[in-house]
């Protein structure tokens, strides 16, 4: 599953990306109580796609019924439903959200076999898009959707939605997966500052633990979060070229570079006092709880930090904490010479022919759709036409600007590039192997052997 995006992961661009994010963080720190930190408002201007400022024309679809499938739940699903409501209002169509299960390829396969595929699906892995095309489920994007992509997206994001040169997908939602969110009160109580390097990260964790607060909340029950931990360490330590080779399984998981990354990650996982609830507690913690337990309890939360993407803001919103005041963010610490920049995303693809599916694909490629969800928080779009004012606070705006500034200079989530059997299935493949590693971080060699065996089987080599 070769990722088709730019390969120039330069220090200059990485510095520009994180400078934008750092600026956003600095604004948030100094603007407590101001418009940028309260989770509401748009900075005074009208977001694209709001109050009639439409950027795309849509056909009338009165009476047409559509289904959209995605693995989103909770507030993420609720916020996306608002996007679908806007599409309904503008076209007259009726759209039903269909909750999907991981792995989504299996879910869709069942729907297709039963003759009832959804009109559009949002796929969380590049490998899932490739599988949908190979299985002849997917419909190529129509001219209207392609026109929106040409106008609004950098080439790298367009290529990620293409298979064998044909455009199928629209990357509606992106993610900056190289962020660490922290409880400002817990940091202040322990007298620590956001670290820039892995060495400093472990030192901060030591101080937090000594102060009586577990440093990190790890969502070990959800194996995908553990793949993100590994990928950030590996990209920073081994470098982008090795990252690309491992993503394509051109080097084995028994390679020494993997050993080094697992050993580094083990410095965190092996310290029971560093993890909220210890390893067993982490393995029982699902992603939403990993966030909410970090931002409840005042200056004595269950953990002071939680690692994950910009979408963490959606879960923070379920607590009393305010992004930009109580909940702040710093880039994933540099393990090697440079901090990592790992991105992910959800790609929309039409599974049925017809005007309705293509119209929805076109809408999702427009700034109009992205602006609706952007203002709800916990969402970042790779659509460069989205008005930054659509995002609800300075931190979200900074993350979005950094993503756009990166252009094609990023690395896409490694596990999402892999066949779903290896990188996207609960209870098996990389997800399960890294859960076992969290339980026993001393068994580096054994985990490497298992990872390689599973990868070889999934990649067919």
TrEMBL record:
<dbReference type="InterPro" id="IPR050490">
    <property type="entry name" value="Bact_solute-bd_prot1"/>
</dbReference>
<keyword id="KW-0732">Signal</keyword>
<comment type="similarity">
    <text>Belongs to the bacterial solute-binding protein 1 family.</text>
</comment>
<keyword id="KW-0813">Transport</keyword>
<dbReference type="Pfam" id="PF01547">
    <property type="entry name" value="SBP_bac_1"/>
</dbReference>
<protein>
    <submittedName>
        <fullName>ABC transporter substrate-binding protein</fullName>
    </submittedName>
</protein>
<dbReference type="InterPro" id="IPR006059">
    <property type="entry name" value="SBP"/>
</dbReference>
<feature type="signal peptide">
    <location>
        <begin position="1"/>
        <end position="28"/>
    </location>
</feature>
């Amino acid at each position: 599953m070769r990722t088709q995006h730019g390969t120039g992961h330069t220090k200059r661009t990485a510095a520009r990306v994180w400078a934008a994010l750092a600026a956003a963080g600095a604004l948030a720190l100094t603007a407590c109580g101001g418009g940028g930190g309260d989770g509401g408002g748009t900075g005074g201007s009208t977001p694209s796609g709001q109050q009639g400022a439409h950027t795309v024309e849509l056909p009338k679809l009165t009476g047409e019924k559509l289904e959209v499938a995605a693995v989103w739940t909770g507030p993420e699903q609720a916020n996306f439903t608002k996007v679908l409501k806007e599409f309904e209002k503008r076209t007259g169509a009726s759209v039903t959200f269909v909750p999907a299960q991981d792995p989504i390829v299996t879910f869709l396969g069942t729907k297709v076999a039963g003759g009832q595929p959804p009109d559009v699906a949002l796929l969380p892995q590049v490998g899932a898009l490739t599988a949908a095309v190979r299985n002849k489920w997917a419909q190529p994007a129509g001219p209207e959707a392609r026109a929106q992509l040409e106008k609004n997206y950098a080439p790298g994001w367009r290529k990620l939605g293409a298979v064998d040169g044909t455009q199928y997908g629209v990357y509606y939602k992106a993610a900056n997966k190289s962020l660490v969110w922290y409880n400002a009160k817990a940091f202040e109580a322990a007298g620590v500052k956001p670290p820039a390097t892995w060495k400093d990260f472990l030192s901060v964790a030591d101080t937090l633990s000594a102060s009586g607060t577990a440093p990190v909340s790890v969502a070990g029950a959800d194996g995908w979060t553990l793949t993100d931990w590994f990928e950030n360490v590996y990209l920073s330590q081994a470098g982008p070229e090795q990252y690309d080779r491992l993503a394509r399984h051109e080097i084995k998981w028994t390679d020494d570079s993997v050993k080094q990354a697992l050993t580094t990650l083990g410095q965190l996982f092996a310290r029971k006092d560093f993890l909220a609830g210890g390893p067993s507690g982490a393995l029982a913690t699902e992603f939403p709880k990993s966030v909410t337990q970090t931002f409840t309890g005042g200056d004595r939360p269950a953990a002071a930090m939680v690692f994950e993407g910009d979408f963490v803001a959606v879960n923070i919103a379920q607590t009393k904490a305010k992004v930009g005041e109580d909940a702040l963010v710093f880039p994933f610490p540099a393990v090697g010479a440079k901090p990592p920049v790992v991105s992910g995303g959800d790609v929309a693809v039409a599974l049925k022919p017809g005007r309705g599916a293509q119209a929805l694909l076109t809408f999702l490629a427009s700034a109009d759709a992205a602006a609706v969800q952007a203002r709800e928080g916990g969402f970042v779009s790779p659509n460069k036409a989205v008005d930054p004012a659509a995002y609800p606070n300075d931190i979200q705006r900074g993350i979005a600007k950094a993503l756009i500034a990166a252009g094609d200079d990023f690395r896409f989530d490694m596990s999402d590039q892999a066949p779903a059997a290896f990188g996207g299935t609960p209870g098996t493949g990389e997800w399960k192997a890294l859960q076992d590693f969290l339980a026993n971080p001393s068994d580096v060699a054994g985990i490497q052997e298992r990872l390689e065996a599973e990868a070889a089987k999934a990649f067919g080599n």
